[in-house]
Design a protein that fits this description.
With about 160 residues, this protein is an alpha+beta fold. Helix content is about 30%, strand content about 30%. It contains 4 helices and 8 strands. The protein has helices at about 20-35, 65-75, 135-145, 155-160, and strands spanning about 1-10, 40-45, 55-65, 85-95, 105, 120-125, 130, 145-150. Strands 4-1-3-2-8-5-7-6 form an 8-stranded antiparallel beta sheet. A hairpin with a 4-residue loop joins β6 (about 120-125) and β7.
């Protein structure tokens, strides 16, 4: 399976919008994400709010074909909220497994040493993702520069922005 990890930062201009406008923009994009979650492959969203100065949202998409990554991004570009979400990074890889709920630590360039016990390991050809409770993942992400996020439904992730 092919993986795409996309990180986004919310621009401050979004917070200056009226609450009703913010709500409408979140609803539009969360509906798109929910539709994509019902398609083949998978789409998982993680909130990095309060856990990263670089990014606020992480999307992990799994698909059998690269065109699915492009199709999702094309549809995202047609939403108005994406005008307020700045892409920070995109990591493409190939690996096995689908995420579940919980915390995710993403290490784009691998990990020095072995992963801690009690976490689920997703090994790509170039990157490593670990899923589990925050207690073992937080210190590891601090020491090794990974991205740490909490699994959320599409609407929950956007409401935390």
């Amino acid at each position: 399976m092919l993986w795409a990890f996309s990180l986004f930062r919310l621009l401050p201009e979004f917070r200056r919008l009226e609450a009703e406008v913010q709500e409408h923009l979140k609803e539009e994009l969360s509906g798109l994400f929910a539709r994509w979650q019902a398609k083949g492959g998978f789409l998982a969203l993680y909130s990095l709010v309060g856990l990263s100065a670089e990014a606020d949202l992480l999307l992990w998409q799994g698909a059998a074909d690269l065109r699915a990554f492009q199709a999702l991004r094309r549809e995202m570009h047609r939403t108005r909220l994406l005008g307020y979400l700045e892409p920070v990074a995109l990591y493409l890889d190939r690996g096995e497994g689908e995420p579940g709920p919980g915390f995710l630590a993403l290490f784009p360039f691998g990990l020095e040493g072995d992963p801690p016990e009690g976490v689920r390991v997703f090994r790509g050809e170039n990157l490593l993702a670990l899923e589990g409770p925050p207690e073992p993942l937080f210190p590891l992400a601090l020491r090794q520069g990974g991205h740490l996020g909490a699994y959320r439904t599409p609407r929950e992730a956007l409401d935390e922005l």
